[in-house]
Each structure stands twice: as C-alpha cells, then as structure tokens.
From TrEMBL:
Record-level Gene Ontology MF annotations: ATP binding; phosphorelay sensor kinase activity
Top-level division of the source organism's lineage: Bacteria
CDD domains (alphabetical): HisKA, PAS, PDC1_HK_sensor
Protein name (database record): histidine kinase
InterPro entries: HATPase_C_sf, HATPase_dom, His_kinase_dom, HisK_dim/P_dom, HisK_dim/P_sf, PAC, PAS, PAS-assoc_C
Recorded catalytic activity of this chain's protein: ATP + protein L-histidine = ADP + protein N-phospho-L-histidine
PAC domain residues: 359-411
Gene name per UniProt: dctS
NCBIfam families documented for this protein: sensory_box (TIGR00229)
Domain annotation Histidine kinase: ranges: 431-646
Transmembrane stretches, start-end: 12-30, 248-267
Enzyme Commission code: 2.7.13.3
Organism: Magnetospirillum molischianum DSM 120
UniProt KW keywords: ATP-binding, Kinase, Membrane, Nucleotide-binding, Phosphoprotein, Transferase, Transmembrane, Transmembrane helix, Two-component regulatory system
Length: 646
C-alpha cells in the first residue's frame, strides 16, 4: 500500500473523528453540569418552599396558642374570639374555619359563624385529635380529610385552652392545603416546578399547578412536617426547551465536522482510486507493451492528414525500418514497392475518405532489403478519449507464407480428393467392368451378325440398318460410361458452373446402381419437383453422393434382404437444397458420432478414415453443411446442403 492509501492517509480522518468525539464529550459534560446545577437549584428551591410552608403553619399555630392563652384568662365567652379570629383568617386565607369547643367537646363558637357546624367540615378523627391535644397540652395536627368545594383536602390544628392549669376548651383550626399552596408558593416557583402534596400511598392531595407534566424532568421529595401524618412535598421541574442557539451551534459544529470527515474520506477514496488507476494504467501499459512486443501483426497509426504517428515492433520487423524512420513520414512511404505506388496511393486516398473495405485489402509492400511481400491491411477509425475521430489505425499481416501454405494445402486436398476417387473407382472396378461388358457384348454380337449376313451374299442394305443403328447406340453407351469414369478420375481442379442438382444426384447414382443390385439393395431417388440449380463443381458433388451411397451399401451387408433399401431425396427450403441419403444399416453409436468427420477415423476395418472428412470439406467449400442423424427406422441418415440458385 502506498503513502496516500495506507495508515498515514487515514490520519486526517482519525484526527477529525477524535475532534468530533472530544466535542461530543465536551457537550456531554456541559449537559451534565447543567443537569447537576438544575438539580442543586431544585433542591434549594424545594427546601426553601418547605421552610416557608413550615414557617407559615407554625406561625399560625403560635397565633392560635396566644389566642388560647388569652381565652383561658378572659373566659371562653369573651368577644376576643371573634376579633382575633377575624384578623387571623384575614391574614391567612388557608385557615378555612376556627371552632371553639368546651371541655365537653361542645361547639361554643365558630369563625366564620356556622350553627350548626356542617358535618362535611368536621374531620372524621377530630375526637382523637381533641383527646391527644388535651393530654399533651400543646398543638396537635390531625390527619388529612376531604373538606369539600374548592378547599379540597384539609387538616385540623388542635390547640388546648387552659385556665389556671385546668383544661377548659379547645381551639380547632381547619387548614386547606390548596389555599395554603396558593397563598404561600410564589408565582416564579410555579413557573419552574409543579408542587404536589402527597400522602403515604402516593395519592396527590393538593397541587400548585394544574398543568400536567408531559415529560417529567428532575424531581425532589421532602417530608411535610407539620402537619406530618405521612405527608410529603413533591416538586417536579418542568422540562425546559433546549437552548435553541446552543443546539443550532452544536448541530452546526457536528455538521461541519461530519462534512469535513466525509470530505476527507471522499478525498482519501479519490486519492486511492487515482493511485489504483495510475497503478492499473502502469500495469496496463506494461501489459500492452509486452503484448505489443509479442505481436506478429503490424500496427500503424496515421492522423487525418495521413502522417504516420505510431508503429509497433512487429511492423518495424516486417518492413525492416526503425520506428524513428517511419514516425512522421508522409506518402510515398519508404515501404511502398515502386511498381505498386499507384495502387498504394489509391488505397491511401480511399482510407482518408473512409472508403476502405471493411474486409481488408491486399497490397504488395517492400522491405528495406528490397524483398517484396504480400500484406493484408485492415483500416479502422482511430477515436480519441473525447470521442473525436483523430486518425486511422491499421492492422497489417504478412500473408505471403500463408498464401503459400494455402496453395500447398489446396493442392494436397485436390490430390487427396483425386486419390479418393481413384480408390473409389478401384473398388468399383468389377462393377464398372460388368457395366461395360453389356454394351461391348452387344456391339460384338451386332457386328458378327452383320458380317454373317454380308458373307451370305444376299443381304439387302435395309436389313443391316437396324442392327448397325443398335450397334452405334451401344457404342455411344459404352463411350459415355468411359467418359464419365475418365472425368471422375482425372478431374483435379474445381470448376464451378451452374448445374441442376437433380441431374447431378442421378448421375452419381448411376455409378452405384449396379453395385446396389449386386448386393440386393433397392435404391429410391426422389428428386425435387422445383428442379433447383446451384453453382458447383458437379464432379465433386458426385463424389460426395457416391461416397455416401457406397457407405450406405457397405453398412447394409448384414441387413436382412427385405430391409435393404437406400432412400435418396432432394428438397429445397429457405434458399438451401437439402440432399438426404438414408439407409437401414447397422447405424452409428453415439461414441462414434463424435469423431465421425475427423480425419483417419473409420468404422471399417480396412478404411482410410478420409472419406467423410473429404466430403465435409467439399460441401463446406461449396458453402454448405454436412451432418449426421440417426434413422428412426434403424440405420443412418446423412444430409448436406447446397445454396440454391434462383
């Protein structure tokens, strides 16, 4: 890995990640400190409000104690009760009612006046609080109870009245918790917190705020004494909206950091890809250079004006000139043969016009040594990286040796075909001799008869006309057989000419009909009614049909006589004439079918293995195709096609 793509290349990204992490830690610490500050502030505010409520309740209790002392001195019927209670309830609205009872628990006076006292405003356990305050001789707080109306939950304060040490009565003050919180808890506290008074079971008895806390924030709880009885003050902070500026600043910082990380990552990725591309380019250049050095095909590039801009080593070796001698040169080129200069100029102008043949063209070029060679040139447009046509690229092949090899191969193929025909004729010699024997015997018979009639001396000329005519016909027949054999054997160079496919097939069958009859084989020929024609060498096509028919005859040597049949048919479809040769012989196994057309492969014990290979070469030379199919009724079917001529 190189510098830009290794661990050093990742240091900027790592640094930015550390910056983001540290920034996150800093913001977390600030948030934590803020939470701690709010928690401390909440505790302080809770303690303050608890102390304020405690001070207010105890102050009212002391005021009631002083009133009880004065009533003990002046008597329970003193008008002092109304004057003092009026002042006390005016300064403390949470004191909903003050009741004066005598030692027998009878209600003497109430403030505000109520006669009789409503049962709903009497605590269920007031008797217990009454006895406990009388016993202790000091103020006692009762349990919370439902006062009703807007007052809600309330509790009683029991203050005993003594005269000269004797218990004479009881002041009972009812305190409303809702009014207590409403009067004593300041507005700023209610804006920040929700204050609730709950009992030991967690039931809310009174609250300062009626706003429900959707998402509770910090909370703190303290005991509410007095009055006690399991009451507690619960204060819950409202969740404040986060600081918009701080949030925006934090989001902007994180966004910038993330953008920087992504930018660095993209830059690192771009650098890595660039280095990989450069490395790949170097590797590709080295590969192309090695490939270029190993090529045997000459490559030459020219600009739009025909000036040579590039040549490879193969082209330099081909013409014998160095690249420095060729690059920058303009026509006439040093490798043009003087006698071919006009032809080279003509093709040069055609290339610049874009009229070069796509299949390539041939030129005679000259090496530095003066040796001529034949080259096959393919020209193609040269397109630059921007898609603009910037010149022409040529691929140049030295085809001198190839043409020599092709000529030699063609000659050898022709010799092989002629040899195959000779072998075929040799194998058919006895049959052909029998074919010739019939017309020759007839000629001899007709000639002897004519001589006998002439020796008799009484012959008329019209009597000799018929036998002499038949003698001439038999002589022509023998001559045709000999000429066909002569053409078939001595033909060496292909001669393509229009020929009727039906007649070519029928002519080939004429060679093997006698051999088929000899083996008891029936031959059926079904010509194409459309009488198709093709451009072909009829001797070579006859050789293909003759080879396939003889193979069919030999394949049916072991076939029962009533199944010995060769069916030859011609049909035309889609511009192709299909010749079908079907037999009922032993057939060909799938293993044999794979190598059926390969050279020197034969199913015969004494076969050369060249017959089908030669047949396929002949058919393909005529732009056709030869293949094999199994016969559904048993045996083999060989088919080949020839282009039909309209």
């Amino acid at each position: 890995m190189r510098l830009g793509t290794g661990w050093r290349g990742g240091l900027p990204i790592l640094a930015m990640v550390l910056v983001v992490v540290l920034l996150g830690i800093l913001l977390w610490l600030l948030q934590r400190n803020e939470v701690e500050d709010r928690s401390q502030s909440l505790i302080q505010d809770v303690l303050w409000v608890e102390q304020d409520l405690h001070f207010h309740i105890t102050t009212n209790a002391e005021s009631l104690t002083r009133l009880a002392d004065r009533l003990g001195r002046e008597g329970l019927n003193s008008d002092l009760f109304y004057a003092e209670t009026r002042t006390l309830t005016a300064s403390s609205p949470d004191l909903r009612r003050i009741v004066l009872r005598d030692s027998g628990e009878k209600v003497l006076r109430t403030a505000p006046p109520a006669d009789p006292l409503p049962e709903t405003e009497i605590a269920p356990d007031w008797h217990t609080g009454f006895i406990l305050a009388r016993s202790l001789g000091q103020p006692v707080y009762g349990a919370p109870f439902w006062l009703g109306g807007e007052s809600g939950i309330a509790f009683d304060v029991y203050v005993p009245v003594f005269r000269q040490g004797q218990f004479v009565g009881m002041l009972v003050a009812t305190v409303s918790l809702n009014e207590l919180l409403s009067q004593q808890v300041p507005w700023w506290f209610a804006q920040k917190y929700r204050l609730e008074i709950v009992d030991g079971d967690g039931m809310v008895l009174a609250t300062k705020s009626q706003v429900e806390v959707a998402e509770p924030g910090l909370s703190h709880q303290v005991r509410f004494e007095p009055p006690g009885k399991g009451l507690s003050i619960v204060v819950t902070a409202y969740r404040r909206e986060n600081d918009l500026v701080r949030n925006l600043l934090s989001a902007a910082i994180f966004g910038l950091a993330l953008t920087a990380i992504l930018s660095l990552w993209a830059l690192r990725r771009h650098m890595r890809r660039r280095l990989e591309a450069e490395q790949a380019l170097r590797a590709e250049h080295a590969f192309r250079k090695a490939m270029e050095e190993s090529l045997t095909i000459g490559m030459r590039a020219r600009d739009l004006d025909g000036r040579v801009t590039y040549v490879n080593s193969a082209f330099c070796r081909m013409v014998g000139w160095e690249a420095t001698d060729l690059i920058g040169s303009v026509p006439p080129m040093v490798y043009w043969a003087p006698e071919e200069a006009e032809n080279c100029y003509s093709m040069f102008r055609a290339v610049l016009r874009g009229d070069a043949p796509p299949e390539g063209f041939e030129l005679i070029l000259c090496r530095k040594s003066g040796e001529r060679f034949k080259a096959l040139v393919y020209e193609a447009p040269l397109i630059d990286s921007e898609g603009q046509h910037s010149g022409w690229m040529a691929s140049i092949l030295d085809i001198t040796e190839r043409e020599r090899a092709e000529d030699l191969s063609r000659q050898q193929q022709e010799k092989l075909q002629r040899t195959a025909r000779l072998i075929t004729m040799g194998e058919m010699a006895s049959t052909l001799a029998h074919e010739l024997n019939q017309p020759l015997s007839a000629i001899a018979s007709y000639a002897a008869g004519c001589l006998n009639r002439l020796d008799a001396g009484n012959v008329r000329a019209e009597e000799l006309e018929a036998p002499l005519t038949k003698l001439g016909a038999q002589a022509q027949r023998a001559g045709q057989i000999i000429r066909r054999i002569h053409d078939f054997v001595r033909k060496s160079k292909p001669s393509v000419a229009p020929c009727a496919i039906n007649r070519v097939i029928e002519g080939a069958i004429g060679f093997v009909e006698a051999d088929a009859r000899k083996h008891g084989i029936r031959m059926t020929v079904t010509p194409d009614p459309t009488e198709p024609w093709t451009d072909a060498d009829h001797i070579l096509i006859e050789q293909v049909v003759l080879n396939l028919a003889r193979n069919a005859i030999e394949a049916m040597c072991a076939t029962p006589w009533f199944h010995r049949e060769i069916d030859i048919s011609i049909r035309t479809a889609e511009g192709q004439s299909v010749v079908r040769v079907a037999d009922r012989g032993t057939g060909i196994t799938p293993e044999m079918a794979d190598g059926l057309f390969t050279p020197f492969f034969s199913t015969k014990e004494e076969g050369m293995g060249m017959g089908l290979n030669i047949c396929r070469s002949i058919v393909e030379w005529h732009r056709g195709r030869l293949w094999y199919e199994p016969n559904p009724g048993g045996g083999s079917v060989f088919l080949f096609t020839l282009p039909a001529k309209e």
